[in-house]
Amino acid sequence: MRRGGRILVILGLFLGAITAVGTFVVLSSAVEQGTRIPTKPVVVALLPIADRSIIGADAVSVKEWPEPLPPGKFFEKTTDVIGKLAIQTIYPGQIILDPMIIDKQKAGEVGSRSNAAFVIPEGKIAMAFSINEITGVGNALQAGDYVDLLLTLQSSTLPTCPPAKPCTGNEGLPVTQIMLQDVLILQIGPWSSGTGDSKGAAAQANIITFALDRQDALSLKSAREQGQIDMILRRAGDHAKFDNLEPVTLQYLNKRFKFNLTPPSTSGLR
Q1: Which of 32, 33, 80, 90 is deepest in the core (most CB within 10 A)?
Q2: Is residue 235 part of a domain?
Q3: Are 87 and 102 contacting, i.e. CB atoms less than 8 angstroms apart?
Q4: Taking a C-beta distance cutoff of 8 angstroms, is the pair 227, 247 a contact?
Q5: 64 in a domain, yes or no?
Q6: E strand or H helix at 3, and its extent?
């Protein structure tokens, strides 16, 4: 083969190789573009968000989510959900949809329904109760706090001891005991005034709303009309129950704190 023909063959092979590589690159790019899944920016949870809790800035972020998206209204900006109230548990990685949150700032406005029904835990009911600075722990209570309820009853209204049952010695004396424990506060102040400023409401409120079991609500209703009720505020995160507390009477105080009081003598009375 002549030298000129050999050069043409080599040049043809070289051009063929370039063409093959170029075709492969073009086809690969076309395939990649054809299989690319469209996405949209959505707000998702980064941290677990408990129900009835305020959504913080560190708990959410914007992520690109492949379509199709779950049905329902979603959010594209974190500012649309920060500060809102979660009305169900939201898990990390979960898209935040409109039915999962509620705007507490707008609750109670004219034409808007109260958000009370949304924040009641499952199996509970809401019950209002009147408070003052003393029974309300010096206006320290806020929505989301947990309290114990102390009840003092006057036993002077109880029937006298029947013959078959001996008296305990506490007849006629007031008795104080913890009545209910770990009770969730849903709201401080009237719901119609909105729920955005719970701290400001706590300074003036004379109404508190509890989340209770139905039987506990009946008990609280009866206790409210027959005794004196005070509240003690639990430390944040403390949900321990105490079942061995001793009821406190005058005799208990006399013995424990060593007053050494004695009843008046009746020997000279006839």
Answers
A1: 90
A2: yes
A3: yes
A4: no
A5: yes
A6: helix 3-35
The helix/strand/coil state of 72 is: coil
What residues have CB less than 8 Å from 237, skipping those under 6 apart? none
CA atoms of 203 and 56, how far apart (whole Å): 24
Read off the pLDDT band of 133 (50, 70, 90).
Answer: confident
Q: Residue 171: CB partners within 8 Å, gap ≥ 6?
A: 155, 158, 160, 161
Asked if the structure places residue 252 within a domain, the reply is yes
Is 113 a residue whose pLDDT tops 60? no
User: Measured between alpha carbons, how far is 119 from 188 in angstroms, rounded to an integer?
Assistant: 13
The pair of structure tokens assigned to 137 is 């722990």
| pTM tops 0.85, yes or no | no
User: β-strand 60-66 against 39-45: which pairing, if any?
Assistant: antiparallel
Range of the domain at 71: 39-102
One-character DSSP codes across 159-193? PPPPTTS---S-TTSEEEEEEEEEEEEEEES-GGG
The residues near 146 (Cβ < 8 Å, ≥ 6 apart) are 182, 183, 184, 185, 233, 234, 238, 239
Residue 164 shares a structural domain with residue 231: yes
Checking phi first, is residue 144 left (phi over 0); if not, alpha (psi -120 to 50) or beta?
Answer: left
Type and span of the H or E element at 102: strand 101-102
Give the model confidence (pLDDT) of 39-78 as tens digits: 889 999 999 988 777 899 999 999 998 888 778 788 999 9
213 with 140, same domain? yes
Tokens describing residue 14: 């070289």
Q: Closest Cα partner for 152 from 253, 251, 257, 247? A: 247
Is 221 domain-assigned? yes
| Sign, Cα dihedral of 93, 95, 98, 100 | negative
The H or E element containing residue 118 is: helix 116-119
